[in-house]
Amino acid sequence: MLTQFTQRAVRIIKNIPEGRVVTYGRVAFLAGKPGAARQISRLLHSMSEKHQLPWHRVVNAKGKISLGRSQGYELQKALLESEGVEFLHNDAIDLKIYLWNSFDTVNSSDPLLPVQDF
DNA sequence: CCACTGACTACTT
DNA sequence: CAAGTAGCCAGTG
After folding, report:
1. Would you state the torsion angle of the CA atoms of residues A23, A89, A84, A49, taken in this order, to the nearest 10 degrees?
2. Which of residues 78-117 of A touch strand B (CB under 7 A)?
């Protein structure tokens, strides 16, 4: 039996558009449990295959990939780059450009329009 | 029920 | 910037 939080998180992750990313904390926040970022990683670990989640579109708050080299770092980076996500010199993604807010697509003609943080 | 573990985060040194 | 700390809470045993 999955918790409501988990179900919401799964739905949110499945809605991340191609070429955009979200942070663990953001997913937790949108799922109703701010600060429960760690549960998202656990969720991805155990359910990404079963629910066909775009797990590679989830990165940490620094805009970096949290996977180790032996855990799929290269694969995640390759998948993101194939969707058009660009990495900076320090292997980080510019969240001002690629972070998906779930709200910024409504009135935006440009999907890459920078989102404001608050 | 208790203890422990995370692909995390924000805050403080 | 690096390192430490304290929250976080679903799974697992």
Report:
1. -40
2. none
